[in-house]
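Recall the central idea of this unit: under ordinary conditions, the amino acid sequence of a chain determines the structure it adopts. In this exercise we apply that idea directly, starting from the sequence alone.
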Amino acid sequence: MQKLIVLLLLFAACGGGGANGVNGKTSVLVSVVPQKYFVEKIAGDLAEVTVLIPPGANPAAYEISPSDMRVVNDADVWFTLGLQRETTWIPEFSSINDGLRIASTINGITRLPIGRYGIPGEQNETDGGDPDPHVWLSPAMVRLQAEAICETLCETDPANQGTYTQNLEVFLGEIDVLQARIHSLLDRYAGEGFMVFHPAWGYFADEFNLIQVPIEIAGSEPSPGEMARLVSYGRNSSVKIVFVSPQFSEVSAETIAEEMNASVAFIDPLAPDWAENILFVAQEISRAMERE
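Accordingly, the structure predicted from this sequence is:
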């Protein structure tokens, strides 16, 4: 009998999936930090959430570590976003944890080319290319992701379905309030542009009728000719702030800002408090527009 108990304990310690497998909670993986906010809004303390790409890391270049793989081995669910890195991880994760449920949160979301924005008034030669992955920066798109997360949690842990669905309704109400506040800040600037280094804010711009003007062109630093055109646009449009993300070099942004007599401000697409961050970005863009 004692041997049987020991064997059962060893088996349980090995992980490998199964709902409520870690400390009585569903073990959830997410790819980027803001997703943790979404899952915790819906699951509360019913889930243990691990972020695969840590704060400050570049999602396009991050490599999974051996310690990450140990967490993957114990996970029940992984919520994906359609990132390019995820395509290489899916077969790896499945091979070490055949019980891992891989759930896309972007079904029903139309992703647009990341190169769709350029300098207003110019033909955008970079239009097309890879799909824009930054679907967590549009509140309207986050509504769809939250619904997908809730559906998967209910299927994985049906005993707590009532809690998940109730929390989802609360979260959707919070998104409604957030959208209304952002509209109150930005609707007066419909059709105007804001300048950023990395084009992470395209879906945000789409939702709130703004134009994102990226410095980075097709994932690369701008050429001298592109720099000159960006400076010309900034001067003609009286741009006073150039936004840059902490995950990327600010050298080009600072050079362009100096040429335009503008300042550099940081906005983080991967901040952990998603709602607070989205509102902060709207406030920063509003302040920048007021100065222009």
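The chain has two domains: 12-178, 188-291.
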